[in-house]
Design brief:
By secondary structure, the protein is α+β, with helices and mostly antiparallel strands. The chain has helices at residues 23-27, 49-59, 117-122, 190-198, and strands spanning 2-4, 7-14, 30-37, 40-48, 65-69, 72-83, 90-97, 104-113, 125-128, 132-137, 145-149, 159-161, 172-173, 180-185. The strands form 3 sheets. Strands 2-4-3-7-6-5 form a 6-stranded mixed beta barrel. A 4-stranded mixed β-sheet has the order 11-8-10-13, with no helix packed on it. The longest helix is centred in the first third of the chain and has 11 residues, at 49-59. The termini are far apart. Residues 1-5 have low confidence and may be disordered.
């Protein structure tokens, strides 16, 4: 895997092992994968697990990954990663081939930075309502994450809304302007806490 000026490249090989035998690949240090897309014939792949981990940490599911197969390079987005429910081992990965001249929609992680004065000085409780946002953009313009500065949350009840985000003009957020991203709430009093704990719970 090579990274040049934020360009993420991943070398892969065409995969001959299919079906239930792919467990052999995992034991050999490879992730079984598939590359597909609009007007693109599906190509079964195998990728060195260490290289895939590095690329996935950098790219997530929104940043371009250029997959090199034989003598051809495919611009892709990591569309889906399947993991073992117990061991968390990566079982399979999907690479979706994109066109650089067509906009796509992708989920981008929201990362909070800074310190809220309402939390620090007033004892408020920081509440995040959104962990990711759907963004429409050309693949090469999609960010790895969206940074949200929470230092503007100075008073109880202050909110950060979608419309407050400072994003590049190349990005379109697929959410309502008034949707709440984060807020600060007053802590519950002892009486309110006791009442909440006494409330009956319903088991289905």
């Amino acid at each position: 895997m090579a990274i040049k000026n934020t360009k993420i490249e991943l070398n892969a090989q065409k995969r001959e092992i299919l079906g239930s035998k792919v467990s052999q690949l995992r034991r050999s240090g490879y992730v079984p994968a598939i590359l597909y897309g609009k007007n693109q014939e599906s190509i079964p792949l195998q990728v060195p697990i260490k290289d895939f981990h590095k690329a996935f940490v950098l790219a997530g599911e929104s940043t371009l990954v250029y997959v090199n197969v034989d003598d051809q390079t495919y611009p892709t987005i990591i569309k889906d990663v399947s993991r073992d429910a117990i061991s968390d081992e990566i079982l399979h990965a999907d690479f979706y081939k994109v066109r650089l001249d067509e906009k796509i929609k992708a989920k981008v992680a929201v990362v909070f930075q800074g310190e809220s004065p309402a939390v620090r000085d007033l004892g408020g409780i920081f509440v995040r309502n959104i962990n990711e946002l759907e963004i429409e953009a050309f693949p090469q313009d999609l960010p790895h994450e969206i940074i949200v500065d929470i230092s503007s949350l100075k008073n109880m009840g202050d909110q950060i809304l979608v419309k407050n985000l400072k994003l590049d003009d190349k990005l379109k957020v697929m959410a309502e302007d008034e949707e709440i991203i984060a807020t600060v709430q007053e802590p519950m009093s002892e009486a309110e806490l006791e009442k909440a704990l006494e409330a009956p719970t319903t088991t289905i």
